[in-house]
Amino acid sequence: MIEAVNLSKTFQDKKRGEVKAVDEVSFVCRPGEIYGLLGANGAGKTTTLRMLATILEPTDGTARLCGHDIVEHPERVRQHCGFLSTATALYPRLTAQEMVEYFGRLNGLDEATLKKRIDQIFQRLDMNSFRDRRCDKLSTGMKQKTSIARTLVHDPPVMIFDEPTLGLDIMTARTIIEFIHECRDRGKTVIFSTHVMREVEKLCDIIGIIQNGKLLAEGTIEQLRQRHGTNDMEEIFVRIVTPHYQEAV
Amino acid sequence: MGLRNIGIVYRKELTEALRDRRTLITTFLVPLLLIPVLGAGFTGVMSAVIGNAKREKPKIMIIGGEDSPGVVEALRKNPKINVVPTSKDWKDLVVEKKIRAAVEIPPDFQADLSKGQARTVKINVYGGELKSEFAAANIESLLKEYRDGVATERLTANHLPAELLKPFEVKRQNIAPPEKEAGAILGGIIAYMLILMCLNGAMHPAIDLTAGEKERGTMETILSSPVSRTHLVLGKFLLVMTASLITAVLLMFSVSVSSAALEKSGALNQMVDEGEPVPQLSLGPAAVASVIIMAVPLSVLFSAGLFTIALFAKSHKEAQSYIAPLMFLVVIPAVSAMLPGVELTPKLAIVPLLNVSLLCKELVTGEYHWNFIILIFLSTCVYAAGALYLAVKMFQRESVLFRS
Q1: By the CB < 8 Å criterion, does B217 face chain A?
Q2: Residues of B in contact with A92 (CB under 8 A)
Q3: CB-CB contact of B179 with B187 (8 Å)
Q4: Does residue B23 contact residue B204 with C-beta atoms inside 8 Å?
Q5: Which terminus of chain A, N or C, has less C-beta within 10 A?
Q6: B354 near B167, Cβ under 8 Å?
Q7: DSSP 3-state of B142
Q8: Contact at 8 Å (CB) between B62 and B72?
Q9: How many CB atoms within 10 Å of residue B189?
Q10: pTM, whole model, 2 decimals?
Q11: pLDDT tens per residue, range B233-258
Q12: Which residue of A has its CA nearest to B225?
């Protein structure tokens, strides 16, 4: 379970001065649910998810993952979540197996459990043919599978995906989408950010629309459709965001 | 848990480093090959140049001397020089290196000599040019012999003993123990090389593990793992320090093997005059071990310093441009220690890098001033701890890790 309470992040920019990247964002994401954070570029999606993954520290407010506070116990939070984005690359000089082993060990798994987990994951993701190949020699699809295996190795109850399909070809993106579905089916709490409407419609149970760091609207797809009187997700998004977008411009 | 995580990070970084060609070259190949290549190259070239210069029978010209056949004949008869016919453009010939020297004998030289009047014979040389200097030395010693001969003749004519010219003999004798002699020759160079190698060994891994990670996109990956940032930075720092220390150890190994081999090869015989003792270059195990011990805090200092600087950069290239000026800063104290007359004092013992350079110079000569050793070891440890603390602090700062 993820509970964000007035989560805020301010950056100091040399040219722009104080920039509020995330402004008092609050939401709840439950186990077995996919929460989609929808927003344009620079809306504050990545910063929000980085704070949830404890890569960045909030300037105000907080969040709890599986009951652990992201400010007070960031290491415990990281033990309970898997974070995947197109920016989370692999170590080029490690093999696929070494990469997954490394993160398994850092997550405190003992050698016997680690071996068992790796065998299971590699079998499930069909990775055995390239387990001993160095990451810099892997195809994009293989790399994505290795990244997925890396996030899954400690079987975290919370999964955080930051625009996981950005820049990927259709087949590789499909692997990721299927994986996100699988996570929900296994009862994990899933939050992911995107600006692709099709992904939102396909995957999300609850959608939060974010712009200028503020959570402007939240609800299921049906609720949002009823509220705005249209089935077109893109139209709904534009109607919600436009006044704030112009304000920002 | 903390030590376990540091160990996991260290092992992973070591695995990657051992698969990185650039790290292998800077850590293993450069320190192993630098000294033999430089040593063999330098000694080879020097002994060839000096040997050639010594073997050459230099062409010299005698200017004037038509009324002084005695001195001219003495010069002509000398088998070590080749007297060529006089020409008006003798100055140009010396400058163009067509002749090595020109001896100017003043008019009425011999007549004045017999009257007991002192005159000056000039030897015109190309200053700084080895072959010209050798020719001048030959002429000088020949003229001195001639002068002594004249003086002896005068003494004999006056029924005085020839010993009056040399009331006593002067003889120089080398009583320095071999390791001290080796240290005096190699000490400054070893300190200089040690500082450069410690820095060079740490440089690539420090960049690769900081700016390199940012550039490759793996920084965010590792920050999403449960390992604490302090443990992460310590694991990474230990790898950088290992690379720096291995470089220092291999350098010292290479220095001791190369210097012993050089001494054995006899290449140094070319560089000293006949009859002069050949300096001993081989280093004792105590000297090698003590220099390696001093390299430990030096490696910590460099590793932590480079780590902190490289952490600010967003890419490998940017990090290199930040670190390049540091090389110049490091070279200054390293070179200062090589200058003659710069000795360890309590004040210099707390100047970072210069203190280690000066101490290494002493350690290599087998001198152990324990008060200085403790002071320098401790002060370097303090600087190193400060640099490491800064590295850990910097690694906690989002503005440094996610600088855009």
Answers
A1: yes
A2: 216
A3: no
A4: yes
A5: C
A6: no
A7: helix
A8: yes
A9: 17
A10: 0.81
A11: 999 999 999 999 999 999 988 888 88
A12: A78
What ipTM is given for this predicted complex? 0.88
The structure tokens 């093997």 sit at B257
* CATH number at A2-80+157-248: 3.40.50.300
Predicted confidence band at A144 (pLDDT cuts at 50, 70, 90)?
confident
CA pseudo-torsion sign A223, A227, A229, A230: negative
Q: What angle do CA B53, B59, B63 make, to 5 degrees?
A: 135
Q: What DSSP element (H or E) covers A36? A: strand A34-38
Helices B316-336, B354-364: axis angle to 10 degrees equals: 50
Give the whole-angstrom CA distance, residue B384 versus residue B378. 10
Q: Residue A249 has what pLDDT?
A: 47
Contact A212, A44 (CB under 8 A): yes
Q: Where in chain A do CATH 3.40.50.300 domains reside?
A: 2-80+157-248
Classify burial at A35, counting beta carbons within 10 Å of its beta carbon; exposed 0-12, middle 13-18, buried 19 or more: buried
**pLDDT score at B152:** 86
From the list A143, A145, A152, the residue with the least C-alpha distance to A117 is A152
pLDDT at B200 over 70: yes
A188 has a pLDDT exceeding 80: yes
**Identity of the residue in A55, A57, A98 whose CB atom sits nearest the CB atom of B224:** A55
* pLDDT of residue B183 exceeding 90: no
Decide if pLDDT at A247 tops 60.
Answer: no
pLDDT at B264: 76
Task: Compare CB distances from A106 to B216, B225, B399 and report the shortest one's residue.
Answer: B225
Separation between Cα atoms, residue B25 and residue B34, nearest integer Å: 11
> Do the Cβ atoms of B58 and B131 come closer than 8 Å?
yes
- Tell me if B270 sits within 8 A of B43, measured CB to CB: no
Give, in order, the Cα–Cα distances in Å from A214 to each of A69, A132, A217, B333.
Answer: 21, 45, 9, 55
Tokens in use for B308?
């902190």
B12 and A98: CB-CB below 8 Å? Answer: yes
Question: And the tokens for B110?
Answer: 């011999």
Task: Give the 3-state DSSP-derived string for B163-225, with helices as H, strands as E and coil as C.
Answer: HHCCCCCCCCCCCCCHHHHHHHHHHHHHHHHHHHHHHHHHHHHHHHCCHHHHHHCHHHHHHCC
Return the bridge partners of A5, or none. A62
pLDDT at B235: 95
Give the pLDDT of residue A126.
Answer: 87
Closest approach of chain B CAs to the CA of A143, in angstroms? 13
Nearest to B16 among A53, A75, A91 (CB): A91
Nearest to B44 by CA among B356, B266, B192: B266
Q: Which tokens belong to B380?
A: 């370097």
Q: What is the pLDDT of residue B189?
A: 82
Domains of chain B: 2-44+177-401 (no CATH), 52-164 (3.40.1710.10)
Q: What is the mean pLDDT of residues A64-86?
A: 92
Q: What is the DSSP letter of B28?
A: I
Q: Give B20's contacts in chain A (Cβ within 8 Å).
A: 93
Interface probe for A, chosen from B4, B224, B229, B404 (most Cβ of A below 10 Å), is B224
Distance CA B356, CA A76 (A): 44
Gyration radius of chain B's alpha carbons: 31
Which residue pairs from B38-41 have beta carbons closer than 8 angstroms and sit at least 24 positions apart in sequence? Answer: B39/B258, B39/B259, B39/B262, B40/B258, B40/B262
Whether A150 sits inside 8 A of B16 (CB atoms) is no
